[in-house]
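Exam revision sheet. Question 4 asks you to relate a sequence to its structure. Input first:
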Amino acid sequence: MIIFGTIFCFSSTIIGGIGYVVNSFYHSNAILWTTYSVAYILEVVGLCSFKANVIQYTIDQLVGASAELLNTFIYWNSAAVPIVATFFEMCRCLIDIQYYVPISSFIAIIAVSTVLVSYSCFKHKLENISLLKNPIKLIVRVLCYAWKHKYPENRSALTYWEEEAPSRLDLGKDKYGGPFTEEEVEDVKTFFRMLPLLIATVSYAVSDEVYHWIMLGWFGAVKLSFLDCAIASDFFNFATSTVSFIFWLLIIKYCFQNCIPSILKRLSAGQVVNFIALLSKLILLTINPLDSTNTNNAPYTNNFLILSQFLDGLKFILIIPASLEFTVAQSPVHMRGVMVGLWLASMGCGYLFNINLKYPFGCDNEYMCTSYQYYLIKCILVLIFLIVFLVLAKFYKYRVRENEVNVHLIVDDHYQRYMEQEEEYSKRERNSYEDN
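Answer key, structure tokens:
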């Protein structure tokens, strides 16, 4: 799926470039919208296929790696987005559109081609680990068994001793007469405990700003300075995330390792920053709304938005890598791919809601919705998400996998080796007797 996603992204870039070239010589809205629509669909499908599988695939290559190494990989993977966005948004505000589009398309083609060539050269050295268990099938089987059975199949008091009555899901364990191992049932329980915590990524996506990409000189009546263009294109958001990631990975991780809070505390802090960022925009638009005489659809470029974008950059580094790290760390091995997919899906649902929330409030400005009612509703929603997440995080039970010693296996192995040694000794004695 990773290579297919990369091919789709490559095809999207080629088709988009062809549409731009054709439109330059023969202007046709039908051709332009057709090529751009196909390119956009391929890009979204390819990006989702790539992102949903690259985490699991890369972790499979790091078999036996330490938790610190996996944590570093997840943070660098998350940092790639703001680093690239910072570079492109800066170029967008410095380079004219007629040069920016072909340059950015050329860089994208080179980058995707490099990935395809690298995979072809090194695929024989990569591990291809097949999924031994179907996680969806296991979840359905455990739920069906819990639905059909209200009491343990094994009723002997000598078989188990529990202070608390087992739950319906626990009845599927083999010690209660069920067809599943204890590990399988605990995996399913962990899956359902983790699902509500995906509200963190939903909250992030709901509060995020989905700006239209603005290009300097795109509109004849709108002439922007670099600062105004940077504010309108959310440049300071990406720049803050980039600097924060570099500071975190190169300084905090090594110099203040003992002071780093737990994953859920980082996520909780990210939710608080998320709410404060929205609240700052609400206050700004209430005090200083967009000029009603704006007839050129000019972007809202109040300098105080830099503070809001700074908070947006902080919430990214607090929520996105921490939520992904939590998902990877707590997910059962055979459910990791499904959980990462649900992590992306929860973010997609939040963005879908975020985009469609603008229409009821008459957000005419395509760069940023300037309706304070819009931000008031988002503040209320994010505050509800914050309270719910704090409650869920407080009562979340971490999955701790205990490496229990299998005494029977050790004894069987010991006697097996003893019998093999005894047989070898008898064979030597017999051969020695025959030689004499």
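Marking note for examiners. Residues 214-221, 403-408 have pLDDT under 50 and may be disordered.
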